[in-house]
Design a protein that fits this description.
By secondary structure, the protein is α/β, with parallel strands linked by helices. The chain folds into two domains: 2-174 and 346-361, Glycogen Phosphorylase B (Rossmann fold), CATH 3.40.50; 186-333, 3-Layer(aba) Sandwich (Rossmann fold). Helices cover 45% and strands 15% of the residues. It contains 16 helices and 13 strands. The chain has helices spanning 10-28, 50-55, 72-89, 102-113, 133-144, 153-161, 175-183, 191-195, 211-214, 217-229, 242-251, 266-275, 285-293, 308-311, 322-333, 350-361; strands at residues 2-7, 34-39, 63-64, 94-98, 117-121, 147-150, 169-171, 204-207, 236-239, 258-261, 278-281, 297-299, 315-317. Helix 14 (308-311) links the parallel strand 12 and strand 13 (315-317). Helix 10 runs parallel beside helix 15 (322-333). The structure holds uridine-diphosphate-N-acetylglucosamine.
Length: 363
């Protein structure tokens, strides 16, 4: 069986690393499986891409399509044109896409147009917020994919509601959590730790990159000011996404308690998450990592495609209303937070289940 694995943007890299490891393990056991790794180039900065390959021991991609930057349509088009050529030259039995980024959708469409099967790892998630580019990516991908590897039972139910036959849905757990467990002992102290004299539970960690939070100056300014006025003097460590960096530079926003850093590598970022008083974020993946590490997590969004992080885990959906944000941050300061549990099958063995299922399907 030949698998083409697609990765394009930062949150994809931790999802494909354990899948490749599981394929290599299967190869060692004599199973008939080979893979080709395609990097679309959606994320191209060293700190958004190459550092993750290095730290997570992901092999060099077989090809980089170098289709980064530009508008959503420009990115989608560039990826599709180049991925079509790649598939025509190297036709696999199945294309494996992960997550919900532009590359996920673009490569799914391209594959299906060439009648190549598609499997969607992390299929079935729904925020029901159609203003999110990721929701469009998820819905398009899930409406054409052949097989779905889901992180939760609820994701499977969403697919069934959409008319997907239960036999094409495999509830396997979360590959991002495979990466977390596999690397937990390797989390690496970032420079800022000693430089600022940080210690356990002595700081907040903040990430922001959603267009709805960072593309308008007044919205971003209100969020940052509310956070700074509600975190009781604790430093707020803020690894800044390139998109957000552009706006902060324009605004010239500075505050001595807001520690703006370049994007951190996986091992350094997770070191900080594991020891933080709390995480404040608009990312989806980080709410899952905080859930597994049982760290209080405040999500600056009005919807989530990952409701289990709230229903089971340590995450709360707070939205962008400053009063609401203040209320939740005060609860963290007062140590008034739920403990949370870990969702079913988020156990570190998801990728092996995926490969076993694929080998069964293409027997
Ligand atoms: C993308 C994903 C989002 C994911 C996020 C994590 C989509 C629709 N969104 O959002 O789901 O949570 O990645 O990082 O796919 N840029 C750089 N250097 C880079 C990458 C991007 O400067 O290495 C710039 C781009 O040129 C662009 C902006 O940052 O101007 C946004 O990048 P883009 O890939 O469009 O989306 P993200 O906001 O990163």
């Amino acid at each position: 069986m030949r698998v083409t694995i697609v990765a394009g943007a930062r949150p994809n890299f931790m999802k494909i690393a354990p899948i490749i490891r599981a394929i290599r393990k299967a190869q060692k056991e004599g199973k008939n499986i080979s893979y080709r790794l395609v990097h679309t180039g959606q994320h191209y900065d060293k700190k958004m891409s190459a550092d993750f390959f290095e730290q997570l021991n992901i092999p060099e991609p077989d090809i980089n399509l170098e289709a980064g930057s530009g508008t959503q349509a420009e990115q989608t088009a560039a990826i599709m044109i180049k991925f079509e050529k790649e598939l025509m030259e190297n036709r696999p039995d199945i294309v494996l896409v992960v997550g919900d980024v532009t590359s996920t959708m673009a490569c799914s469409i391209t594959s299906k147009k060439l009648c190549v099967d598609v499997a969607h790892v992390e299929g079935g998630l729904r925020s029901y917020d159609w203003t999110m580019p990721e929701e469009i990516n998820r819905i398009v991908t899930d409406s054409i994919a052949d097989y779905f590897f889901t992180t939760t039972e609820m994701a499977g139910d969403n697919l069934k509601k959409q008319g997907v036959d239960a036999g094409r849905i495999f509830f396997v757990g979360n590959t991002m959590i495979d990466t977390l467990y596999c690397n937990k002992e390797r989390f690496r102290k970032p420079e800022i730790w000693d430089k600022m004299g940080l210690h356990n539970k002595s700081y907040f960690i903040l990430t922001l990159h959603r267009p709805s939070n960072v593309d308008h100056e007044t919205t971003l300014e209100t969020i940052l000011n509310t956070i700074l006025s509600s975190t009781s003097g604790f430093p707020v460590i803020f690894p800044v996404h390139p998109r957000t960096r552009k706006m902060l530079q324009k605004m010239k926003f500075e505050d001595s308690r807001l520690i703006q850093l370049d994007p951190l590598s996986y091992l350094e970022f997770m070191y900080l998450v594991e020891r933080a008083k709390a995480v404040i974020t608009d990312s989806g993946g980080i709410t899952e990592e905080a859930t597994v590490l049982k760290i209080p997590c405040v999500t600056l969004r009005n919807s989530t495609e990952r409701p289990e992080t709230v229903l089971i885990g340590s995450n709360e959906l707070v939205g962008s209303d400053p009063n609401n944000l203040k209320k939740y941050l005060t609860r963290i300061i007062q140590n008034d937070w739920k403990h949370g549990n870990i969702p079913e099958l988020w156990d570190g063995n998801t990728s092996e289940r995926i490969i076993e299922s694929l080998l069964e399907i293409y027997r």
